[in-house]
Design a protein that fits this description.
alpha+beta, YefM-like fold, 3-stranded mixed sheet, 3 helices, 3 strands
Length: about 60
């Protein structure tokens, strides 16, 4: 959802509650998106987990 900077300032707490429930906001200033507020997901793998997955794949010989 797009929201202007002024509206974002006025409704910040409501926006945070909605973002916590999965909604995403684009902050608009002078007609251009300048920021995005998105929820943080705990299931994002760490760098070590990604590396381990990459090296666990077997190559065909």
């Amino acid at each position: 959802m797009n929201i202007t900077v002024d509206s974002a300032k006025n409704y910040f707490m409501e926006m945070i509650d909605e973002v916590a429930n999965g909604k995403e906001y684009f902050i608009i200033r002078h007609g251009q998106a300048i920021a995005r507020i998105v929820p943080v997901f705990d299931d994002v793998p760490t760098r070590a987990e990604i590396t381990e997955r990459l090296f666990s794949y077997q190559t065909l010989t």
